[in-house]
Amino acid sequence: MFSASKGKAAHLLKGSSKKKRSRQEMEEVKHEETQLNADKHTFLQQHKKLKQEHELVQRELEGHRKNADTLNRLHAQGIIDKQGHPMNSKKREQLQD
To answer: What's the CA gap between 95 and 52, in Å, rounded?
Structure first.
């Protein structure tokens, strides 16, 4: 019979549900993990580089927007013409002649 400490259903318990891996299988798994880690590292480096490039482009774009706003305001105030030349400059007068 079964001991009281294990209970009546002790015969239904499995000894071990994990299959033991061979040395070759362990080496294959280790190799795959190493490959995945290298791929992950490369991916993260590329992602970081792309993110930095995107941030740089966004800053440049914001700078161009500010410059365009400044040029439009100066043109509206009559300080510069449509080509961006000052209204009261000798260069502008020479271009008109």
So the answer is: 43
Report the C-alpha gap between 85 and 91 in whole angstroms.
8
CA 69 – CA 79 distance, rounded (Å): 14
Tokens read off for 18:
């994990």
Contact 93, 81 (CB under 8 A): no
pTM to 2 decimal places: 0.44
Q: Look over the chain and give the mean of its residue pLDDT values, rounded to a whole number.
A: 78
Calculate the alpha carbon distances from 20 to 28, 36, 63 in Å: 14, 23, 62
Residue 47 in this model has a pLDDT that exceeds 90: yes
